[in-house]
């Protein structure tokens, strides 16, 4: 993960390696069970991943690694209408993580879903550059991107170039999807750390939630020109930052990583009271839930879920 923390001393980054304390695992499991129960009560069918041994070592001809964890299925799979794209992640530790979802994906294939895997990247040391930290550390040598580098708005997909997605990834996705009727738009110079789903969050057709620390009226992507915009920054974590001694893999804006169940119903971190008030002001009902370790585990409600199937047809919201 050092390519995402190029500005940090290596000893701080190395401290992220190794097992997560059991107490944190137990609390995270409590929170994810509460989320699963809330989704079931809202009429959502919930599936859970298969447990895999993320401590097992694996290798390619170029490198050796152990796994990460399976908290964030959203990162590695991109569902689009009747497609499921297995993305080429820049993280070596996640090379085989989709095995946790293998059975669910096979069931989807049996139901007629097209499962497409992007070319597996080689991810040599040359794939990452730390010389100019004003630019993404991920180099443009082979198609590489995580699924949350893509924001889905019906037929339109906004692709972010960052430490977790490069231009060749954009070109590969464009070549694959535009013949199928999608429109792929490039977003650069908004936010280069990693993913996009705590930066631009479509709430319903015509209304988008934007992280005001990264997106302004001047740099907002053109596809939202005719949309109503909520520029928001008042996150609870900003009021109570963690100790500087602790390097957390996620920004304080992870509270924006909410999960939309429908155009007027979302799951949101219960401590984000200002965000809840703002969403309710726009007639969006909030289900406040605990998500105590979102920053440590690099994922809020959106990251920790993956919508395999939704009712409705593929719509055009941005013309």
Chain-wise SSE layout:
Blueprint: H1 10-14, H2 22-41, E1 58-59, E2 64-65, E3 77-80, E4 83-86, H3 102-110, E5 114-117, E6 150-153, E7 156-160, H4 167-177, E8 183-187, E9 200-204, E10 207-211, E11 228-232, H5 236-239, E12 259-262, E13 265-269, H6 273-281, E14 285-289
Parallel strand pairs: 4-5, 7-8, 10-11, 13-14
Antiparallel strand pairs: 1-2, 3-4, 6-7, 9-10, 12-13
The succession of helices and strands, N to C, reads: HHEEEEHEEEHEEEEHEEHE
Helices, by number, come to: 6
Secondary structure class reads: alpha/beta
Strand order of the biggest β-sheet: 3-4-5
Low-pLDDT segments, ≥5 res: none
CATH superfamily: L-arginine/glycine Amidinotransferase, Chain A
Q: What is the radius of gyration?
A: 19 Å
Ends distance: 38 Å
CATH architecture: 5-stranded Propeller
Shape: globular
Number-wise, the strands total: 14
Number of domains: 1
| Mean pLDDT value | 90
Return the CATH class: Alpha Beta
Query: Strand percentage, roughly?
Result: 15-25%
Helical amount among residues, as a percent range? Answer: 10-25%
Could you name the CATH topology? L-arginine/glycine Amidinotransferase, Chain A
What does this structure look like?
The protein has one domain (2-289): L-arginine/glycine Amidinotransferase, Chain A, CATH 3.75.10.10. It has helices spanning 10-14, 22-41, 102-110, 167-177, 236-239, 273-281; strands spanning 58-59, 64-65, 77-80, 83-86, 114-117, 150-153, 156-160, 183-187, 200-204, 207-211, 228-232, 259-262, 265-269, 285-289. The longest helix is centred in the N-terminal third of the chain and has 20 residues, at 22-41. The strands form five sheets. A three-stranded mixed sheet has the order 3-4-5, covered by helices on one side. The protein has a three-stranded mixed sheet with strand order 6-7-8, with helices on one face. A three-stranded mixed sheet has the order 9-10-11, with no helix packed on it. Strand 4 (83-86), helix 3 and strand 5 (114-117) form a beta-alpha-beta unit. With 319 residues, the protein is an alpha/beta fold. It starts with 9 loop residues before the first helix and ends in a 30-residue tail after the last strand. The protein has six helices and 14 strands.
